[in-house]
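Students often ask why we bother encoding 3D structure as a string. The short answer is that it lets us treat folding as translation between two languages. Here is a chain of 321 residues written in the first language.
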Amino acid sequence: MNKKYVDEVRRFGGPKPRIDADGKARNVRHIDEIDPSDVITDGQGNVLRMPLLRRKPCFARPERFLRGLFGSKSWTDDKGVRRPSASPCYTCEDMTLGTFMSCHKVVVERIESSSSIEDAFEEWDDSTAGKTGPWCFNGERRQLWNVFLDVIEAHGGWSNINENQVKVASLAEAKEERRRRKHSERRRRAAERDRRKGLIGPLTPEFFAALDEERDERAQMLKELKKIQGKTRRDTLWIHVTPDDTWDRVADVWRAREILRRANAKETGKAIAEILARMPRYVTKQPAYLQARVSKDLKRIKRLENDERGEPIWPAWSFDA
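And here it is in the second language, the structure alphabet:
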């Protein structure tokens, strides 16, 4: 018996699978695409070998797969067709089809591995009459669904090598994350020392000419990045959904920050907003509005300059007189 699997049958077979035993929300992430042919089982639903799959504790659990597909509320489109609402299972199918099909493959094998589980599933399935939605888990159908969960618990669940793979990968990722953070902090401190020593200087026409040219290049870079798709849509979604006007303002905030650095002044949101307020495109904006936008844009800039995972989108800039 796989005690860990059995202990979580009610959680994954219930309406709130994201909430673990400690009451914490555990979100799934659709980041890994695997091929069904790479998932090797023993023919009884136990996974012996498969690629690493992260943030998917629901993978191949019959109780979660069925509840995720059948339990979603439906809505009517413009043509009067009833469609299921988005759920993690449907999102998985949309974003990582190979992973979804791998999950389906093992779910079917697990249900068919036990006649009692298969019989309980068919009895519940017949009671739904092909319908979907929360209705499938209420009334008499709830009793039949609970019988299905009962026989899974009695069966003892199944094992999956991925559970241990995830633990090992987490240890390695944590070590690598610590290394990256230390490296990034060393680079940040070195850059700060260089800035204090060499980047402070007069605000000359040559400085502003170089700064404005760099500002335009950085704004254009972000607009061009919107045309490029990352490994998954989620990787670059934050860039794609940001309007070009916003990226122009982000570049202006970066420009204002560089002016303050050159002048050895404090890089506060208020100081940056005051510089923006003198620019023609912002003269009609209220100070409170500008400061609020600057605060958000500085967070975007921090993300653009982040080098913890390799080359940053916006590398450091300096003016050589």
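Translate back mentally: The mean pLDDT is 87. Keep this in mind for the problem set.
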